[in-house]
Amino acid sequence: MWKLKCSSPDANASPFVKDLFSLNGHLGRQLWVYDPDGATSADTAEVERIRSQFTSNRCFQRHSADELIRVQYGALRKKRAREIHTSPPPPSAYDTSVRSVSVTEDPIPRSVIERSMRAGVEFYQGLQDEDGHWASDYGGPLFLLPGLIIALYVMGQLDDVLPDYVQVEMRRYLLNHQNEDGGFGLHIEGSSTMFGTTLSYVSMRLLGMTATTEAVVNARSWILSRGGAINVPSWGKFYLCILGIYDWEGLNPVPPECWLLPYEYNPIHPGRFWCHCRMVYLPMSYLYGCRASGASSFLTEELKSELFVGNYKTINWDKTRNTCASEDLYYSHPRIQDALWWGLTKVEPFFLRWWPGRWIRANALKLTMNHIHYEDENTRYINIGPVNKVMNMLSCWFQDPSEFGSWRKHTPRVADYLWLAEDGMKMAGYNGSQLWDCAFAVQAIVATGLHVEYSACLRSAHKYIRDSQVLDDCPGQLSRRFRHISKGAWPFSTRDHGWPISDCSSEGLKAALELEAMGSERAGPSVPVGLLQECVNVILSYQNMGGGWATYENTRSYEWVEIINPAETFGDIMIDYPYVECSSASMQALAKFHQRYPTYRKQDIKKSLHRGRKFLLSIQRRDGSWYGSWAICFTYGTWFGIKGLMSTGSTFETCEALRRAVKFLLSKQMPCGGWGESYLSSQTKQYVQLEGGVSHVVNTAWAMLALLASGQISRDPLPLHRGARSLMRAQCSNGDWPQQTIMGVFNNNCMITYANYRNIFPLWALGEYTNYVYGFRPSEGQKNVYFEGITAGARVSNTSDED
User: Fold this and answer.
1) Would you say 307 and 608 are in contact if contact means Cβ atoms under 8 Å apart?
2) Nearest alpha carbon to residue 379 among 463, 470, 464
3) Residue 384 gets which letter from DSSP?
4) 503 an active-site residue?
5) Of 416, 423, 503, 801, which is the active-site residue?
6) Cβ-proximal residues to 374 (8 Å cutoff; 6+ apart), any chain
7) Which sign, positive or negative, has the C-alpha torsion 386, 199, 67, 768?
8) How far is CA 339 from CA 326, 336, 345, 570, in A?
9) d(CA 98, CA 727)
């Protein structure tokens, strides 16, 4: 029986667990631990029922519902005093409908909506871990797990790091997410791609599935019918090179010498790239520079004959460098990029033929490995994300494969990325979304007005937020390591991960201020004021010259650098672009902090909000929406856009940009009262309604939160009444909300799971609905307490979207 253990090093996780190091007792660490004797027959039967149900419906509901953690924590409710005492109200209490279209125009009675919220909070607090955070699925991309499997196979550590019982769950995961045509998508809800199918095929074989297994046969048929694995995109080519079944000549160069170039006045120095891009291509350049490939085996020789059309030995690898299946081609290489790679392929052999070139290569490899070790040590070997986690581990192994090599410090941290649900074992897109979800959950529960009843839950969340704050900058000279300041900021997941982000810092600050306002008797000790001020310092430092905020760092180069984006599958990866979400969250946090502590850096905050407002106005689309880059999509982005403008004092009556945003959201409301947006919006950058015209509780909540903040309740409350009823109709009998389609995204084209969103945002929206309908909260634009005094130091007009 599998059990989730949080905030524990877990002695059974790895033979090298003694090498684990933590800054705060492993707070927030999520580990799935297998105990063959840890379940009753009834427990086992229930888990098997859940798994079987998912498999039976996998072609219709591709997204798992995190049922295993619900079973585990549900069994502990009585012991933890987190029992469910309230059931949601019956539809007859709030809804009169004909064919699912509400004809009730009155506000929902306060007692009825409070019952719904109370049921939602009681269910959700039962999922909270003892350490204060809410653990959840953060999977979705299908190319992450294969990278790990390939790396461990090459290192000879596959069976040691991933025992049989883990491999069983990984095979289950792969089989559950194979499409009906035999292929695999880039993510769990995507149509089949060569990248997803080739890597999943290799994974199935490395995990012990034979070439004659039906799923393997179907995947191979898909691959060969589209020209074979020579048409896999560049990242796929790289993994196959590492495995030793693709020739390095067939991969465009990733020269480590780029790291030796001067940084100053060089817009294409890797240190200027977006940190996720930088930290992936760092170990990739090391491995390319070494031509690191695993030893040949009987299985790899079989894969050579299975994945390619024709005779493997006759492939002209040079001609395969830019081949890419049409299903994968999201970002086409410009001709100038192809010319660059062609030139490098011709120069490199001559460069390495003579000792000066070999000496430069050796120094480049030494420098890249130095940067790799710095990243490893400063993230406690978690690393910024799963791709560079695997590649850094592999680089360390190729540098020193002995038992004394630093790769052994990586292996216990593999478990940090593994998540188990009813669909099987997956590799998550981060080591979790702990702080991010916790900060949102706090704001949602406080918004319900029920926070006094559930103060124990909030005290626990407060402790997690307080103890997850980053307390120090990275060591050494930050500029030499291309790192931003960190002290006082918050990460996406855990302090041990150590990479703070602008919007995570902002949401952490907002949550900390909400909890501080409750008082220590109810919410526990507050984050010290000095550390709140440090967070403000970091948020202010993140702002770019153009007024917007990017993610982890400032934008360090130009948009035209995207022309050398070598990843055909992803868009906008080269630099850290400013985003509406990061900018709005930062503006909201600064305004909220200014309200509470009006004297600290008063003029800096005034100027920052003024510049941030200009940025938000500059990126608003003509239809009034904002494109959301980190969730689906226009409902999410427009929620942030509206809240950002509101934080600078905008009102519907005086701000034309706000009126256009409201009009956009209202135009997308469905007859059922909800909103439902497809992930295709992110890919096409045009609003796409969910197939079948269904609504989505998360999209509905975002739209409602935006409209409520804009003062919609005083203009025409009917859309909000309808939206609230849509959310309440969707609520499950135990207070949960259903898992619907995937809601997260990165780099325009790859979707990712945020399993907690289905609980957080409906609660938040219903809470704000109650506040506005029953007079607890006026329109935020009219409540200028956030904005008080700001206009004295910087001109910020409420009268036009052109200011």
Assistant:
1) no
2) 470
3) S
4) yes
5) 503
6) 476, 481
7) positive
8) 21, 5, 10, 20
9) 17
Q: Is the Cα torsion angle 705, 708, 710, 712 positive or negative in sign?
A: positive
Residue 794 CB neighbour total at 10 angstroms: 16
Which one has a higher pLDDT value, 775 or 167?
167
What's at 4, amino acid-wise?
Answer: L
Q: Is 396:406 a contact under the CB 8 Å cutoff?
A: yes
**With bands split at pLDDT 50, 70 and 90, how would you rate the model's confidence at 783?**
very low
Q: Residue 43's pLDDT is what?
A: 87
What is the DSSP annotation of 477-538?
Answer: -HHHHT----TT--BSS-TTT--B-HHHHHHHHHHHHHHHHH-HHHH-SPPPHHHHHHHHHH
Give yes or no for a contact between 541 and 483, defined as CB atoms under 8 angstroms apart.
Answer: no
What type of residue sits at position 367?
Answer: L
| Residue reference for tokens 């850094």 | 392
- CA distance linking residue 589 with residue 597, whole number of Å: 12
Calpha distance 312→304 (Å, rounded): 6
pLDDT computed for residue 790 by the predictor? 40
> Within 10 A of 676 (CB to CB), how many other CB atoms are there?
26
The token pair at 152 is 């461990």
Strand 97-98, strand 101-102: pairing: antiparallel
432 in the Ramachandran plot: left (φ > 0), alpha (ψ -120 to 50) or beta?
left
- Contacts of 519 by beta carbon, 8 Å cutoff, 6+ apart: none
Helix (H, G, I), strand (E, B) or coil at 631: strand
pTM of the model: 0.95
CA distance 467 to 668: 41
Give SS3 for 333.
coil
Q: Which amino acid is at 645?
A: L
**Tokens at residue 398, please?**
């190729």
Listed as own residue / partner, the contacts of 703-706 with beta carbons closer than 8 Å and 24 or more positions apart are 703/635, 703/638, 703/639, 703/665, 703/668, 703/669, 703/675, 704/765, 704/768, 704/769, 705/639, 705/643, 705/761, 705/764, 705/765, 705/768, 706/635, 706/638, 706/639, 706/642, 706/643, 706/661, 706/662, 706/665
